[in-house]
Write a structure and sequence with these properties.
With 99 residues, this protein is of the alpha+beta class. It has a single domain (6-92), classed as secretion proteins EscU (name from scop, 3-Layer(aba) Sandwich). It is built from 4 helices and 2 strands. A two-stranded antiparallel ribbon has the order 1-2. The longest helix has 14 residues, at 67-80.
């Protein structure tokens, strides 16, 4: 049995909780993934996380039990881009990060 490809996009503006910005399955998922690649949006593949997010509607905030894992992904994405999340400026000077 093959599982249908899914794509769930999240957006976080620094206020409140991240929310679902896009969601699709099958062919629509492929289009969302291609759009992300074409626009240099970072992608993270995690089937268990995608399954947890798949039940949410576009515009809905992520559930509290996913805050920690999503926060780690957001923070890591900042570092991959040579940036630091808000509030990390003091920590930035203490880290020796090569980008």
């Amino acid at each position: 049995m093959t599982t249908q490809k899914s794509a769930i996009g999240l957006i976080y503006d620094g206020q409140g909780a991240p929310e679902v910005s896009s969601k699709g399955f099958g062919e629509l998922a492929e289009h969302i993934i291609q759009y992300a690649k074409d626009n240099d949006i970072l992608l993270h593949q995690d089937e268990a996380l995608a399954n947890s997010l798949a039940n949410l509607e576009v515009g809905q905030e992520i559930p509290e039990e996913l805050y920690y894992v999503i926060a780690e992904l957001i923070a890591f994405s900042y570092v991959l881009q040579g940036k630091f999340p808000p509030g990390w400026l003091a920590l930035h000077n203490k880290l020796d990060v090569k980008v």
